Structure formats: C-alpha cells, structure tokens
Amino acid sequence: MKKTYKIDVDCAACADKMEVAANKTAGVKNAVVNFMALKMKVEFEDGAEPSDVMQEVLANCRKVESDCEIYM
Predict the structure, then answer these.
(1) Closest Cα partner for 33 from 46, 48, 22, 47?
(2) Which residue(s) pair with 7 in the sheet?
C-alpha cells in the first residue's frame, strides 16, 4: 500500500534526513520526501498498519529534525 502525507520541514537537508529516518523505520518498504512539494510518499510492507507505522516514522524523523511535522 502507498500513501502520500503532507509534511512541514524547514530545508532540503532536513527533508533528506527525514527520508533516511523514514526508510529505516520498520514497516516502511520505501519512503520518498519531496521538499519542494512538502510531501512524503510512503510504501508500506505487506501486513503493516499504516497509522501505527507512521507514528514510528514521525518519532524517528523528530530524532533527526525536532521541529518537523507529518500530517496524518
């Protein structure tokens, strides 16, 4: 399953950090952050619950960029 989320991040370097953090999260098959569009596209592993996985993605992203936001 793939979903797109609106994000709030200050710079392209921070967006790159968010993408790396999201891709390291269990349940995420692939994540791509588009800084210009302020969107994150996430492909989930089979059987993963998107809402649960995205809570972990947000927590992991905030470890590298404390003021980022993902609107779910």
Answers:
(1) 22
(2) 70
